């Protein structure tokens, strides 16, 4: 590892100040504000607040709707992560085989990463619209087969697919890079040992990219918990009947629609703690099974 | 039976042809070494035999069966890679037994076989280690064991010793030869190291720029190099080359202004007036009194080799080396006569570099073998 040395400390300070400032303004300050609000009762139209201790948390944790939101978020996060990583891995394994035209495919697969979540949400809203979109053909053939507007499970499925689609490219890039860092002679050696393509992927390539898998699981889960707002907002607005009311969306709903700033702040704190705990847990227990060569 | 026959095999990457029509027949149980400088196409040829590289044109047959379109696993070859290519996440036992696992051999049978092979290469204490915990020589043994356990008909080696230190390289070389004698599989060994080539080979194939320069036993290649290229590549310290003109009248080759080297009269007659390159191995040159030799060199310095000395002389604008067991102490600049026995003078065409006496019979032999 190369290190840079500075003769005097104030140059070093000058270099890190902008970054520290940005982190402070956009992370520590809002977080500390949210933390403060979470322990107060904020007036909806401003004009003072009242210290209430853990009252906001107590209320949330005894609210069935909140627990439902947590449950839906967990389902969404796990399913989105599994689906996105599964698809990305399959695509990367085949892109890595450098079959004909793979360069075009590779670029095509990276592009979706540049598309904003609301745009994805709108596109999928059209595709999955039960009466006007692509899915309407399905309903025409099998009446009442698909109706995310009325059926909560359908709506959640739809949001998961859109969310997964958004995350495929990110995982794909990392998987492809991971696969390409495996020396080609290893797959050649296993080919000489008699293993076919699928067997080589399973026995050689997958075990050797476990560090990448581990990294992507953390990133994808975190993203699914915190970055799903755009999709939910454009596709379902949390409905029908709160079936897709993910934690981030509920924070927005309660805070900016319901004007319950304090409740929303407490929810943000819980969400943050949840993500921190999740990441901590994975580093502590899952990373042991990762093979770093 | 696993003889390998290679007929007019070519390989091109896009427009660049890197192997230009190679013909080669390798007999069952033979140890053939393909040798050449980097980029000569030797590894590509080996990988085409293995099936890791597609053949652009021509035909490769193993045991009489054309394998051009067969997958590597269908060809019955085992390969040892240059960087060993061990599976880093598997134990030594896992690495050695992987091929058997893929072939669905039963666990107990597999373990017994792994233990047996590991013992034969001296790895039985390390079966539970990961490759990362092994030394270079041990990794090399794992790679060998992984190939041996499949009982292949053809053994392919892609510069397997080049990552080892000098002492270990010699040791592993002996071990490879021992294993070959024991299991008797047809072996093709690619290297750029002439010591490895000379010591291991039943026959050597010398490649240069995508074509075969010469095929022959190490002795044939050393004593009758087919071209200036082979002559310069094989032999250490390497051969001295001098340009000259054949003069039949005096049965000699005239070198520079005042050098003259005698050759047999009938050879001189056949080549009268021709511009040639002559090759003299350092051990075939001897040192005599100034004026008494074929040429007179000015002593530069000597290198001590223990068993002898390598003397460097300046002759006109060339450096000549003489290998001798005698210990002389010359002064720098001192004149010394150098002479060579006519039977050890290699004569090559001055323009094409091809050998000018025994070349034709050798070429004919190579093509006969392919025709079989």
From TrEMBL, chain A:
GO terms for cellular component: plasma membrane. The chain crosses the membrane at residues 9-29, 70-95, 107-128, 155-179, 200-219, 264-283. It is found in: Cell inner membrane; Cell membrane. Residues 70-282 form the ABC transmembrane type-1 domain. GO terms for biological process: transmembrane transport. Its main location: membrane. Gene3D superfamilies: MetI-like (1.10.3720.10). Pfam families: BPD_transp_1. It comes from the Bacteria. It is a multi-pass membrane protein. Keywords: Cell inner membrane, Cell membrane, Membrane, Transmembrane, Transmembrane helix, Transport. Belongs to the binding-protein-dependent transport system permease family. The complex is composed of two ATP-binding proteins (UgpC), two transmembrane proteins (UgpA and UgpE) and a solute-binding protein (UgpB). Part of the ABC transporter complex UgpBAEC involved in sn-glycerol-3-phosphate (G3P) import. Probably responsible for the translocation of the substrate across the membrane. This is sn-glycerol-3-phosphate transport system permease protein UgpA. The lineage of its organism: Bacteria, Pseudomonadati, Pseudomonadota, Alphaproteobacteria, Rhodobacterales.
TrEMBL record, chain B:
GO terms for molecular function: ABC-type transporter activity; ATP binding; ATP hydrolysis activity. Keywords: ATP-binding, Nucleotide-binding, Transport. GO terms for cellular component: ATP-binding cassette (ABC) transporter complex, substrate-binding subunit-containing. GO terms for biological process: carbohydrate transport. PROSITE patterns: ABC_TRANSPORTER_1, ABC_TRANSPORTER_2. Gene3D superfamilies: 2.40.50.100, Nucleic acid-binding proteins, P-loop containing nucleotide triphosphate hydrolases. InterPro entries: AAA+_ATPase, ABC_transporter-like_ATP-bd, ABC_transporter-like_CS, ABC_transpr_MalK-like, ABC_transpr_MalK/UgpC-like, Mo/tungstate-bd_C_term_dom, NA-bd_OB-fold, OB_MalK-like. The keyword Nucleotide-binding applies. Pfam families: ABC_tran, OB_MalK. The keyword ATP-binding applies. Residues 4-234 form the ABC transporter domain. Belongs to the ABC transporter superfamily. This is sn-glycerol 3-phosphate transport system ATP-binding protein. It comes from Antarctobacter heliothermus.
């Amino acid at each position: 590892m190369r290190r840079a040395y500075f003769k005097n400390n104030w140059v070093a300070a000058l270099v890190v100040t902008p970054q520290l400032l940005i982190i402070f303004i956009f992370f520590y300050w809002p977080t500390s504000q949210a933390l403060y609000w979470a322990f107060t009762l904020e007036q909806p139209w401003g004009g003072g607040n009242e210290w209430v201790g853990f009252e906001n948390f107590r209320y949330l944790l005894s609210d069935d709707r909140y627990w439902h939101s947590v449950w839906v978020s967990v389902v969404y996060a796990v399913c989105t992560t599994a689906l996105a990583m599964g698809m990305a891995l399959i695509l990367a394994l085949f892109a890595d085989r450098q079959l004909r035209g793979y360069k075009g495919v590779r670029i095509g697969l990276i592009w979706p990463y540049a598309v904003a979540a609301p745009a994805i949400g709108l596109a999928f809203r059209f595709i999955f619209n039960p009466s006007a979109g692509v899915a309407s053909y399905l309903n025409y053939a099998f009446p009442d087969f698909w109706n995310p507007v009325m059926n909560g499970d359908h709506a959640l499925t739809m949001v998961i697919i859109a969310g997964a689609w958004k995350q495929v490219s990110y995982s794909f890039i990392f998987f492809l890079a991971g696969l390409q860092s495996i020396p080609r002679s290893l797959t050649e050696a296993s080919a000489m040992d008699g293993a076919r393509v699928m067997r080589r992927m399973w026995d050689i390539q997958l075990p050797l990219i476990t560090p990448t898998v581990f990294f992507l699981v953390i990133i994808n889960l975190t993203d699914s918990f915190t970055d799903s707002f755009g999709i939910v907002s454009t596709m379902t607005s949390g409905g029908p009947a709160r079936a897709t009311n993910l934690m981030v969306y509920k924070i927005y709903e309660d805070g900016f629609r319901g004007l319950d700033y304090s409740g929303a702040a407490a929810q943000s704190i819980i969400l943050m703690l949840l993500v921190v705990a999740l990441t901590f847990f994975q580093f502590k227990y899952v990373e042991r099974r990762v093979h770093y060569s | 039976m696993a003889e390998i026959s290679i007929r007019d095999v070519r390989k091109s990457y896009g427009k660049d042809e890197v192997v230009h029509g190679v013909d080669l027949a390798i007999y069952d149980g033979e140890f053939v070494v393909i040798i050449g400088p980097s980029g000569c196409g030797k590894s590509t040829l080996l990988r085409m035999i293995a099936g890791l590289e597609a053949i652009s044109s021509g035909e490769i047959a193993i045991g009489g069966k054309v394998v051009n379109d067969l997958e590597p696993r269908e060809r019955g070859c085992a390969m040892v890679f240059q960087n060993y290519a061990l599976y880093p996440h598997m134990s030594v036992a896992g690495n050695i037994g992987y091929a058997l696992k893929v072939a669905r051999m039963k666990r107990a049978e597999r373990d017994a076989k792994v233990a047996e092979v590991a013992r034969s290469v001296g790895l039985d204490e390390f079966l539970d280690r990961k490759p990362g915990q092994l030394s270079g020589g041990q990794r090399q043994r794992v790679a060998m064991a992984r190939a041996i356990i499949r009982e292949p008909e053809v053994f392919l080696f892609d510069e397997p010793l080049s990552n080892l230190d000098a002492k270990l390289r010699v040791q592993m070389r002996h071990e490879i030869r021992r294993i070959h004698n024991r299991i008797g599989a047809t072996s093709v060994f690619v290297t750029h190291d002439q010591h490895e080539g000379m010591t291991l080979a039943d026959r050597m194939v010398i490649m240069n720029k995508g074509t075969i320069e010469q095929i022959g036993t190490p002795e044939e290649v050393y004593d009758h190099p087919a071209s200036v290229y082979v002559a310069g590549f094989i032999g250490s310290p390497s051969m001295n080359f001098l340009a000259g003109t054949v003069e039949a009248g005096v049965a000699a080759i005239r070198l520079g202004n005042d050098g003259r080297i005698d050759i047999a009269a009938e050879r001189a007659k056949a080549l009268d007036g021709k511009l040639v390159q002559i090759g003299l191995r350092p051990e075939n040159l001897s040192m005599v009194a100034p004026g008494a030799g074929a040429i007179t060199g000015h002593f530069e310095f000597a290198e001590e080799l223990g068993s002898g000395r390598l003397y460097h002389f300046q002759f006109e604008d060339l450096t000549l080396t003489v290998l001798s067991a005698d210990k002389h102490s010359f002064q720098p600049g001192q004149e010394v006569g150098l002479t060579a026995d006519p039977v050890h003078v290699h004569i090559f065409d001055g323009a094409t570099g091809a050998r000018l006496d025994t070349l034709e019979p050798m070429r004919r032999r190579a093509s006969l073998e392919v025709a079989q």
